[in-house]
Amino acid sequence: MSPLRTSRSGTLSLAAVLLAASLSGVAMTTAWADEPAAAAECGTLFDDFNYSSSGDPALTSHGWVPRSYPGGPGVPGATWSPAQITFPSSGIMQLSASTDGTGAGTRQAELYTNQKRYFEGTYASRIRFSDTPASGADGDHIVQTFFTISPLNGDLDPTYSELDFTEYLPNGGWGEQGPVNYQTTWYTYRAEPWFADNVHSQQYQSFNGWHDLVAQVSGGHVKYYIDGVLVGDHSGKYYPRQTMTINFNLWFIDTAGHTGAMSTYAEQVDWVYYAKGGVFSPAEVTAKAAAYRQAGTAFLDTVDSGGTCTGPSPTATTSPTTSPTGQPTDCGNAPDWSFGAVYQGAALVVHERSRAGDPSGPPSGDGEHLWRSKWWSQGSEPGWTGVWEDLGRC
Ligand SMILES: [Ca+2]
Questions:
Q1: What are the per-10-residue average pLDDT scores of the chain (394 residues)?
Q2: Cα(237) to centroid of ligand 1, in Å?
Q3: How much distance in Å is there from the Cα of 179 to the middle of ligand 1?
Q4: Closest CA to 45 of 114, 94, 92
Q5: Are 391 and 350 in contact (CB under 8 A)?
Q6: How far is the CA of 143 from the centre of ligand 1 (A)?
Q7: How far apart are CA 242 and CA 159, in angstroms?
Q8: Domains within the chain, CATH numbers bracketed
Q9: If you measure from the C-alpha of residue 128 to the centroid of ligand 1, how many angstroms do you get, rounded to a whole number?
Q10: Using an 8 Å Cβ cutoff, are 255 and 75 in contact?
Q11: What's the gap in Å between 228 CA and the centre of ligand 1?
């Protein structure tokens, strides 16, 4: 979520329920003998979402929980119901959310894994975002998501881990007009009073339609891709520190954008994929998903029985010590980077990146560099996120 978000009420209860769910989760491992060879080398989850309904026993036996408990995030008083999760066509999972502008008249949807066992590796999903409602007036502050999350063990828990692969706001919210899409990597937070410690990337554009989302979590970096394009590289202290669940949800930030009677929105998911410990490119992930489908493998879970993937480590983001010309960069009159300042694209700043991705912590020793922002940002430290281009040492 955006650091601009000012409320995440109810996440504590969500975390508590997730923990309870994970502790009571039924260990379940299923492997197919004819799985593609490339996937046999490591622990893998693949689900093509071939189910009949949220009440399909196979959905539960495959480790998914359709949310039914109340609470945040979203509109206070809203209902979370398994009935909001449907399979409108073969192999497509659909989350539906609707609102009439009241809490009691708001329904939200979430599907999550009953096991908290996902950590390093490659995550992917093919998701259909919708800019407009399926029915009713447009304009609601709907959030279309795919993420992993751990319980928060008390305020500012330093082991808290959350990776928001996507939080798509077609109609804006959190002070933005939209459409805007966020990737957010969390160190920790406190619910009351609200304090968020995270780093995010964002894209100010429409993502209406189907998109392939991939995230690589390895070697201290979380790299987020959309349709094969790297859109975020988060590292330092924000790198996850514990296992998490995999979640999809669809909810309303508030009802401020609502007009008319009932409006209903949908998010569709074609498949989800996870490879334990390995780094696979977006193209490799797409090929693996296609291979599973061609082989008729609608579901595969070897996460607990498979080994750790063997794959190349991601290339660490390193800062050049000089400009491309080999000469020190002229940092001119560029101002020092400031954590709280808002930067537009092409802004120039001077900053020595921190040692561990904590701007208030010790410096890296790399010296001051000149950085140029690629797009709008706030609180994204140069040297630790994809926002800033390194123009060399001053
Ligand atoms: Ca599918």
A1: 41 38 34 39 91 98 98 97 96 98 98 97 98 98 98 96 98 95 98 96 97 97 97 97 98 97 98 94 95 95 81 40 60 89 88 78 87 77 78 90
A2: 35
A3: 26
A4: 114
A5: no
A6: 22
A7: 7
A8: 11-301 (2.60.120.200), 318-394 (2.10.10.20)
A9: 11
A10: yes
A11: 19
